[in-house]
Amino acid sequence: MSHQIRTYTELRQKIHDDLRLQHPEWVQPNGESPICDSYDARLMELIDASTRTEVERVQESPTI
């Protein structure tokens, strides 16, 4: 049975770990991976934009 991901932090870590496993050529000898770091940063930008958009929609919706 696989572990269920419940938070954005867990999702981000899972994607980060999987990218490193699937693309070992992206990992430098010192353990750093600028390509994975770039993917992480882009994912956070997209999550932030999505969350901000949803918050704006909720704030703009008429209250009953």
User: What is the global morphology?
Assistant: elongated
Residues in helix, %: 55-70%
Given as residue ranges, the uncertain stretches (5+ residues, pLDDT < 50) are none
Approximately what portion of the residues adopt beta-strand conformation? under 5%
Write up this protein.
With 64 residues, the protein is mostly helical. It has one domain. Helices cover 66% and strands 0% of the residues. The radius of gyration is 16 Å and the shape is elongated. The model has no long low-confidence stretch (mean pLDDT 84).
Secondary structure blueprint with pairings:
Blueprint: H1 8-22, H2 34-60
Keywords:
64 residues, mainly alpha, 2 helices
Summarize this entry quickly.
It contains two helices and no strands. The chain has helices at residues 8-22, 34-60.
